[in-house]
Amino acid sequence: MVRGQGRPYARDGRPLHPDIRVVSGDLLDQTSLIAAVEQSCPTEVYNLGALSFVPVSWKQPTVAAEVTGKGVLRMLEAIRITAGLSSSRTTSSGVPRFYQASTSEMFGKVRESPQSETTPFHPRSPYGVAKAFGHYMVQNYRESYGMFAVSGILFNHESPIRGPEFVTRKVSLGVAAVKLGLMDKLRLGNLEAERDWGFAGDYVRGMTMMLAQDEPEDLVLGTGITHRVRDLVEFAFAHVGLDWRDHVEVDSRLLRPAEVELLCADLSRARQKLGWKPEVSFEELVAMMVDSDLRLLTDSEDAAGEAVLEQAGLW
Ligand SMILES: Nc1nc2c(ncn2[C@@H]2O[C@H](COP(=O)(O)OP(=O)(O)O[C@H]3O[C@H](CO)[C@@H](O)[C@H](O)[C@@H]3O)[C@@H](O)[C@H]2O)c(=O)[nH]1
């Protein structure tokens, strides 16, 4: 996405005013990326494109490498070629600033907790490996060509428009469907995995702040608070007055070949450098998502509601 004016995401997660949008498939095509940068003359480029659902990356590891990994390199090349940069000695004024969506998945089998900018990577999926490739490429282009290119190492960020295959949305949709009598059981995988979940809108604010710095620097953005999937489920069902133990079943087919068991951000550097901190709590986030899905399933035609539940694997 190339940024427009003002805050790019509203509180409900709707994108606002992007000048141009490059979809993930375009990351496979160097020529179209160069044309997009040439035609739009952006001042800032945010690469949020990826094959981002971790389980699919085991099924399609080469696609993950091409889009999520090499796609970053193609985007960097599009900026470098368009700007005519050949070494760090060429001037980089007028060159668009570049933001890369790096991820806490790169920490994988974590070496320490909480995880900061200096924690070593140990990715546990083809997705995590591809993201680590992109992360190091950004660092490399910054050092080789003097580009203002940064990676935000973002922990899980969610909203009511999260894809229904991800666990927060699968749970909010499942809770809403159970509450409305559309289904009785929600099947999940590993209930013990711990994640640092925050509201996507807070993270987008952090991304824009990273590109407004005087000097480029990679930063961790997260809440510093973790919850288990089990806690997420318990809180979401309790929000509508139900007991999760009556409605949740573990399905071993949803377990991953290798799991990232624990993620927890050390956000002290981002606080210090940007003055950034999340504004929406975990409890507010889950309540926001469950309420939104209750409205969605109540208001939508039967077929539309069934389609979104089907996408989440719930129908
Ligand atoms: N999706 C899913 N996850 C489940 C389920 N049951 C348990 N989980 C567990 O819930 C955790 C979170 O899974 P996801 O919501 O799919 O997200 P993720 O794998 O942590 O990856 C997300 O966050 C990353 C940042 O850390 C992003 O980089 C990535 O693209 C994605 O948005 C994982 O430990 C997963 O095993 C289920 O039925 N579905």
UniProtKB/TrEMBL annotation:
Keyword Mitochondrion included in the entry's annotation: no
Needed co-factor(s): NADP(+)
Enzyme class: lyase
Listed CDD domains: GDP_MD_SDR_e
Domain NAD(P)-binding per the UniProt entry, residue ranges: 16-289
One Pfam family this sequence matches: GDP_Man_Dehyd
EC number: 4.2.1.47
Stored InterPro entries: GDP_Man_deHydtase, NAD(P)-bd_dom, NAD(P)-bd_dom_sf
Keywords, in A-Z order: Lyase
Catalytic activity: GDP-alpha-D-mannose = GDP-4-dehydro-alpha-D-rhamnose + H2O
An annotated Gene Ontology molecular function: GDP-mannose 4,6-dehydratase activity
UniProt record, GO biological process: 'de novo' GDP-L-fucose biosynthetic process
Role summary: Catalyzes the conversion of GDP-D-mannose to GDP-4-dehydro-6-deoxy-D-mannose.
Family (UniProt): Belongs to the NAD(P)-dependent epimerase/dehydratase family. GDP-mannose 4,6-dehydratase subfamily.
Protein name per Swiss-Prot or TrEMBL: GDP-mannose 4,6-dehydratase
Taxonomic placement: Bacteria, Bacillati, Actinomycetota, Actinomycetes, Kitasatosporales
